[in-house]
Amino acid sequence: MITIGQTQISAIEFTGLCLAVLVIALLIMAVRAAGRSARMAEPLAHQIGALGGRVQALSDGQQQLSGGLTQVAEGQAAAQANLLQHMEKRLSQVNLQMTENLQGSARRTAHSLGELQERLKTIDKAQENITRLSGDVLSLQDILSNKQTRGAFGEIQLNDIVTKALPADSFKLQHTLSNGKRADCLIHLPNPPGPIVIDSKFPLEAYEMLRNADTKAQAQEAARLLRNSVKKHIKDISERYIIEGETADGALMFLPSEAVYAELHANFPELVREGFAARVWIVSPTTCMATLNTMRAILKDARMREQAGAIRKELGMLYSDVERLGTRVENLDRHFGQAAKDIADIKISADKAGRRARRLDNFDFEELAADDDKVVPLAKPDI
Q1: Is pLDDT at 181 greater than 50 in this prediction?
Q2: Which of 237, 236, 242, 234 lies closest to 270 in space, CA to CA?
Q3: b/e string for 85-115 if b means 16 or more Cβ within 10 A?
Q4: Within a domain: residue 7?
Q5: Is residue 9 one of the residues assigned to a domain?
Q6: CA 278 to CA 234: how far, in whole Å?
Q7: Which domain holds residue 157?
């Protein structure tokens, strides 16, 4: 486009204008040269006419080209508008899809974060449990590392087993015997065998030395210490808690560790036999529970025998009550028979009275009045 002042013309129009100006200039020159030669003017006029026709044709072509360019511009504008509309629609769809995708991603992200938070809470709880268990393990190690606390641990475990297995009135904890020795638990069994003592012992140090021994010499030394420790416990229980006339002729040594109990029976059978010889029976938590269940059956049988006399007495009284009930039933049956007889007599009297009443109802008192001498006087009834 070419701007002239405030008018804008296209390059084709400007070219046509220039050609028109050139033609006009040529015409002017031709008019001026017309006077020079008439002969030369006529061919020139023909040329000018032809040139004018060509200029007109060029102008018509320019107008057609301008119309085509206008149509092309309008088509391009319509294509651009359609393209813009299509692009706007596509962008709207893309925006909506992106919004939905972002919302879905946000929901999934929030859900994943929620699940992650729950898992983190679970992990935190597990960590707290692990921390607490670690503290409990450390506390248990502290308890087992000290003889007094280790003894208290065994006593507490024994008390828990006995309390769950036996009635509360069938045992006594920390019972002092006549010799002044205090037993961890005394179970009141009937004679025989009589009250039996259970005492808790825990030779843990020698057992740990045996488990941690790296050489044969260390293992032998630990085995020697374990034998001496168990023998001492057997001897102490036999001397302190087996009293003739007061307790049973045996006692139980409670080991609060199944591992120590299994080690003695697996690798130290002579200690178990020595305990049998001293009438001291070694039990673990599991075997102690089984032994206490047997004792509970014994206590139940003894209590049933104690109640046998009372049961026989109650049965005798029940038999007497049944006999009295039979006698009273017979009396009642006799009374029922007499009452039935009386009712039958009453029915007979009622029938007779009814018949007499019907006969009286059939009497004709007018006929009796005409024949007074035939009137039967009423006799006074006998009382």
Answers
A1: yes
A2: 234
A3: eeeeeeeeeeeeeeeeeeeeeeeeeeeeeee
A4: no
A5: no
A6: 7
A7: 146-306
CATH number of the domain enclosing 207: 3.40.1350
Query: For 51-57, which contacts have Cβ atoms below 8 Å and span 24 or more sequence positions?
Result: 51/23, 51/26, 52/23, 55/19, 55/20, 55/23
Place of tokens 């028979």: 337
DSSP secondary structure code for residue 179 in this structure = T
**Percent of the chain scored above 70 by pLDDT?**
78
Q: Label residue 209 exposed, middle or buried (CB < 10 Å: 0-12, 13-18, 19+).
A: middle
Lowest-confidence segment of 79-93, 121-135, 157-171, 269-283 by average pLDDT: 121-135
The rounded distance, in Å, linking the Cα atoms of 85 and 361 is: 128
Q: Smallest Cα–Cα separation from 260: which of 210, 215, 218?
A: 210
Coil, strand or helix at 356:
helix
The answer to whether position 330 is within a domain reads: no
**3-state SS string for 57-97:** HHHHHHHHHHHHHHHHHHHHHHHHHHHHHHHHHHHHHHHHH
Token pair recorded at residue 180 = 């002044």
- The answer to whether position 302 is within a domain reads yes
Verdict on whether the full-model pTM lies above 0.85: no
Q: In a 3-state reduction of DSSP, which class is residue 8?
A: strand
What's the pLDDT tens digit per position in 11-35? 666 676 677 767 777 777 766 666 6
Query: How distant is the alpha carbon of residue 307 from its chain centre?
Result: 48
CA distance 317 to 267: 62
Q: Evaluate if residue 76 carries a pLDDT over 60.
A: yes
Q: Using an 8 Å Cβ cutoff, are 183 and 200 in contact? A: no
Alpha carbon separation from 288 to 108, 175, 379 (Å, rounded):
58, 19, 104
Q: Is the peptide bond before 43 cis (omega within 30 degrees of 0)?
A: no
Mean pLDDT across the chain:
76
For the chain, how many structural domains are there in total?
A: 1
Alpha carbon dihedral 310, 311, 312, 314, in 10-degree steps, equals: 90
Q: What is the pLDDT of residue 132?
A: 67
d(CA 246, CA 277): 20
Q: Strand 2-4 relative to strand 171-176: parallel, antiparallel, unpaired? A: unpaired
CA atoms within 13 A on the CB side of 78: 5
